[in-house]
Design brief:
Layout lengths: L1 E2 L2 E9 L4 E3 H7 L6 H8 L3 E3 L7 H16 L8 E5 L17 E2 L5 H14 L5 E9 L16 E10 L12 E7 L7 E2 L9 E2 L1 H22 L9 E4 L4 H11 L10 H4 L6 H11 L8 E8 L3 E8 L2
Parallel strand pairs: 5-6, 5-7, 12-13
Antiparallel strand pairs: 1-9, 2-8, 3-4, 7-8, 9-14, 10-11, 13-14
């Protein structure tokens, strides 16, 4: 569904202070990994890990407060808050009871939640909304396995506003998304039930599913909005690995230098990745009014999606 008059007012990230580098994993955890391979192939140099007293909801809360502060608006002016997380603190009650309304679609969670928020705003249920992605997959990581290098903890939040008037001319303010789910690859990435369970991943199956589904979602949303890959000014992607993103860029015909990367310093932060990357891009003034901003994601389930927003 296409939404007009949407504006991203602000974005913010919050990550734990504790840093775990590739060298730390190799030396202190006695893992037989090659730090240079992790950095070159995955694009990850370090990740942030929660410590005692920190949780998914505490990271989410801090990211939300920063987004509100950055926007300079009153908290009571927010009509809707949606949390995307795949690492809730409890099976019941939902983390929504601690933060607010939540959505779970693993790494695709933020983009799914963003599309839900825009649809509700378009229906008149809210004028101003916050969407926050927060995850703490360090709790679902077996630090004695080589695949412990993939994930980090963090949160990111965006504050959106729906306006009744058209701003910026042309397509500015339009948002359109293409979302995809398919249970065929259910076992490619999974975390079994149990408080001490860690993730199990078939890396090749995850790569193949994402490399196929994400470009199809991108092509669908570009075609529907009558633009080409050359028209995309910046890509804000979920970031499982640099190698996968390079493959998606090549398949989609989008230059890789247009991809905003944050995985080097925070790794794969699951549902927090896209808002963290967006906050980074906004802070570095990489987005201007009228720019075609493409969001792209893939996650367990299997889920995937792409969204196009003409910045206003």
């Amino acid at each position: 569904m296409s939404v007009e008059g949407l504006r991203f007012i602000s974005a913010a990230e919050y990550v734990p202070e504790h840093i775990l580098t590739n060298d730390d994993i190799q030396v202190h955890l006695n893992q037989e990994i090659c730090p240079d391979w992790v950095k070159g192939k995955l694009g990850i140099s370090e990740r942030r890990i929660i410590t005692s007293g920190e949780s998914t909801s505490s990271l989410a809360e801090k990211a939300v407060r920063k987004a509100i502060q950055n926007a300079g608006v009153r908290p009571e002016s927010i009509d809707l808050l949606i949390l995307a997380t795949a690492s809730p603190e409890r099976r019941a009650p939902a983390t929504a009871c601690i933060v607010q309304f939540d959505v779970s679609a693993v790494c695709s969670g933020f983009l799914f939640a963003l599309s839900i928020a825009t649809a509700m705003m378009n229906a008149g249920a809210a004028r101003r909304a916050i969407v926050v992605g927060a995850d703490t997959f360090s709790d679902a990581t077996d630090w004695e396995r080589r695949d412990c290098v993939f994930f980090g903890d963090g949160a990111g939040a965006v504050l959106l506003e729906k306006r009744s008037i058209h701003i910026g001319g042309g397509n500015a303010g339009r948002y359109d998304s293409e979302l995809f789910t398919n249970g065929r690859d259910l076992e490619a990435f999974t975390i079994p039930l149990g408080s001490s369970s860690t993730f199990l991943m078939d890396g090749k199956a995850v790569f193949d599913a994402a490399a196929h589904a994400v470009p199809k979602c991108i092509d669908a949303v570009l075609t529907r909005n009558a633009i080409t890959a050359d028209d995309i000014d910046i890509v804000i992607p979920h970031q499982p690995s640099r190698y996968l993103l390079e493959n998606i860029a090549a398949s989609s015909g989008i230059s890789f230098d247009r991809f905003e990367l944050c995985m080097g310093r925070v790794a794969n932060t699951v549902g927090a990745t896209i808002p963290i990357a967006l906050a980074q891009a906004m802070e570095n003034n990489r987005i201007s009014t009228g720019d075609a901003v493409l969001f792209a994601t893939a996650g367990a389930g299997f889920t995937a999606g792409a969204a196009l927003h003409f910045w206003s």
